[in-house]
Amino acid sequence: MRTSENSADLVAAEDVLLFANAAITATGQREFRSGALDQQLSLDFLHTYVRVNYRRLYAASLALDINDHNAARIALGLLATAGEASAEERRTEGRLIAARLARLPPQRVYRLFGEVRRAGINNRRTRAIMRDWLAARPDLGHDAVKYRSGVKTAARHVHLRCPQGAEPLAEVGAFLFRPGKLPRYEHPLLDAWRRAHYEQGAVAELPFTVAEGFAARHGMKREVFLKRAAPRMTRLERLRTHAVTQRPDVDLAAMPLTRLALYVLALPFEQRAARRTELTGALRTAARRAAGRHAGSWGRVHAVLDDSFSSSGSGQKRRRPLAVALACHHLLEVLAAPGAYRGLWTSGRGDALLVRPWGPTPLGMRVLDALEPGPGGAAPDRLVIVSDGWDNAPAGLAGEVLRVWRARLDPGRRTAVVHVNPVYDADGFDVRRLAAGVPTAGIRDAEDLPALVEIARFAEGRTGAAELHAYLDRRVALFLGENDTEKETENETEKGTMS
Length: 499
Fold this sequence. Notes:
Blueprint: H1 7-25, H2 36-53, H3 55-60, H4 68-80, H5 87-103, H6 106-118, H7 124-136, H8 140-146, H9 148-157, H10 168-177, H11 188-195, H12 208-218, H13 222-229, H14 235-240, H15 242-245, H16 257-266, H17 269-274, H18 276-291, E1 301-305, H19 320-335, E2 341-345, H20 363-370, E3 382-386, H21 397-409, E4 416-421, E5 424-425, E6 430-431, E7 440-442, H22 449-456, H23 465-481
Parallel strand pairs: 1-2, 1-3, 3-4, 4-7
Antiparallel strand pairs: 5-6
C-alpha cells in the first residue's frame, strides 16, 4: 500500500468494498442466523451512510454485479435526493439509473415506480427516466396485462398521454383507465384478457401468471391448464412446473447456473440419482457457458465448499447458500486447467450431486486438506473457499491455518486464496470473514465468481484506493457503453413465448 495515500481515501475504499459486499449478498430477507428486520435495518444504515458520504461511488455501484434488490434501492435513493447532487453528478446518475433499469426484470422496475410515486418523487429527471423506460418496452400491451397495476401507476405518475382512437397506446389507455368501454381490442393479449372472463379457451393465450388466476376462476384442472399454457411459459416458469408437466422440451442446460443448482437441490435424492447423467450434464454445460473466455485459465484450483447445516438458508432463501456452493463447484471445475481441480465439501462427501445441508462447519480441517500438494507435489495456484464463514469445528481454526500458511509456508503468495461468502452478516454490516489477511467478497450468483475475485483483491491490502477508483471508473464506462444484456435475469418479459 502506498504510504502517500490519504488515510481518508483508504477509509473510503474500505467503506465502498463493504457496501459492495452487502449490495451483492443482502436482500433484506431472513437469513439462517438473522431475521428480516435485522437485515433491513442494517441495509438501511449502509445505503444512507454510503450515499451521503460517497455519492459518486454509491452511484457507480450500479455498474457492479449487485443484486436487483439493492440496485432498485440505489436508484430510489438517488432519485429522492437529487438536490444533493451537482448538475454533472445528476447527468451521470441518470445514465446509470437508466442503464440499470434496462437490465432489471420488469416486475422489479414497476415495483420501483410504485415506490417513487408513494415517495412523491416527481422531478423532471425522474419523469424522463420513467417515460424513456416505458417507451423502450417491446410491448406495452403485454405489460398492461401482466403488470396492470404497475403500468397504471407509472402512466399516472409521468402523465403518459394515451390518445383516443385505434392507436396501440390508445388501446392500452382504454384498457387501464376505461375498462369495458371498448367492445373488443385489436391487441391480441388485451382482447384475450377480455374474452378470458367468460371464455375458457382464451385463458391459454395469456401470460402464465395472469392465466393462473383465470384458470382457478373457471375451475380448470391444474394438469390440464399447465399443458395448455406450456407454449407461452418463460424458461423459469417451465422449470418451476416441470415436475407436473414432465414436458421433454425443458432445456435444463439453458438455465442460469445458480438457478439450475437450486432446481437440482429441490429434487429428492432418488430423482437426483436416477437423473444423474442428465442433471450433471446440464450443470457442466451451464458452467462452461458461465466461464466463457476464463475456462481453463485458473491453473490448479482447490476448493473448500460449505455444505454444513447453515447452508440450508432460511424459509425465504431456501438452500441458497448450498446452491451457490454447488454451482461454484461446477464452475471452478471448468475454470481450472483440465484435470487440475479438487473440490472438498465440509461434510466429507464426495458426490456433489447428492449434497445436503448437514452437520457443523469444519472449515479449518478442510482448508488443511485443500492446501495439501496435488499430483506432482505442486501446491494449488488458487484456493477458493465458498462458505458463510461460521467456522465452528473447532472455532477459528480456518483463520489460524491460513495465517500460518501465509506467514510461514507461502510468504511469496504462490497460492492465491479467496473467500466468497453468500450470506450477509447484519450485525457486522458485511459478509463474515475468516481472517484479516484473506480477501473476502460477497457472492449471490456463482456466475459472477470471476468478477468477484477481481474485486476481492482490493480487500487484500496490496492495492490502494486509486486502483479501486480506477476499477470502478472502468466498470462504469463499460456498463454505460453496453447495449446488450448478456446476463440472463429472472426476466419474465418476452410475452411468455419460448422457441
